[in-house]
Design goal:
The complex is a heterodimer of chains A (232) and B (41). With 232 residues, chain A is mainly alpha-helical. Helices cover 76% and strands 0% of the residues of chain A. Chain B contains 1 helix and no strands. The chains are: A mainly alpha (232), B mainly alpha (41).
Amino acid sequence: MKKWEIPLGALGLILLVVGHGIGLFVAPPEAMMGDVGRILYVHVPTAWVAMVVYVIAFIAAIGTLWGGKRRWDATMEASVEVGVLLNALLLVQGSIWARPTWGVWWTWDPRLTTAAVLLVAFGVVLVLRRTIEQPERRTVASAVATIVAFVDVPIVYFSVKWWRTLHQPFSNPRTVDSDMVTPLRIAAFGMLFLALAFVGLRRRLALQRIAVEDEAPDLPELPDQLDIGRKA
Amino acid sequence: MTGGMIQGGWGYVWAAYGISWVALALYGASLYLRTMKKEGR
C-alpha cells in the first residue's frame, strides 16, 4: 500500500527544521521578550495546528453519527489522539514561556484554563475509546464526547477577546515584524503537514483494528444475573 | 531586564524546543513502526 503520509511527513519535517532554524538563529529577538520570544516559533504553530486537528475530529464525529461509516470513526480516533498530543505540548511550551515572562509556571488565566479544559475534555474521548469494548457503543459515545469537547475550541480562541487575560491578544502579519512572520509561517505549514501525516498513519492503525473487530464472531450474550438467580 | 527587554533565557528556549521535538519524534517513530508491523503481517 502506498503511503502518502511518509512524503507529507518528510516535507513537514523539513519545513519545521527550516522554520525553527530561522526562528532560533536568524530572526531578531522580540522587542520585550528578547530571546525567550523565540519559543513562539514552536508554540504558535503547535496551537494553530492543534485547533485544525480538533476541527478534523469534530467533522469526523459529525460524519460518524450521521453516516456511521468506519472511516469517519477511524479519522476521529486518529485526530483526537494527535490533537491531545499537540494540546499537551502547547501547554508545556506555554508554561516554559510563562516562567521567564510572567514569573510563574502556571496561572489560572482564561486562555490557559480553557486550553487545559480542552486537553481534559479530549482526553476523556481517548479514555472512552479505550474503556468501552462494544464497538457501536464506543463509536457513538466517543463521537458525542468529541462534539461536546469541541465546544471549548472557539472558547479557547476567543478567550483573549472575551476576558481580561495575561495572554497576548490576537495578532496578524500587520502587527508582527516581517522577519518574524516568515519563520512562523514556515513552521506552521511544517507542523500542519507533520500532524496530517500523523493523523493519516494513526488512522491506518485504527482502520486495521476496526477491520479485526468486524471480522470477529459475535459472542453469545451472557445470561442476566437475575435470570440465573430465578432459575436456581 | 535591560531597557524593558528580558535578557537571556536560552535555557527556556531549548527546553521548549527539546521537549517538543522529542515528543513529536517519539510519537512519529511509534506510529511508523506500528503501521509497518501491522501491514507487514
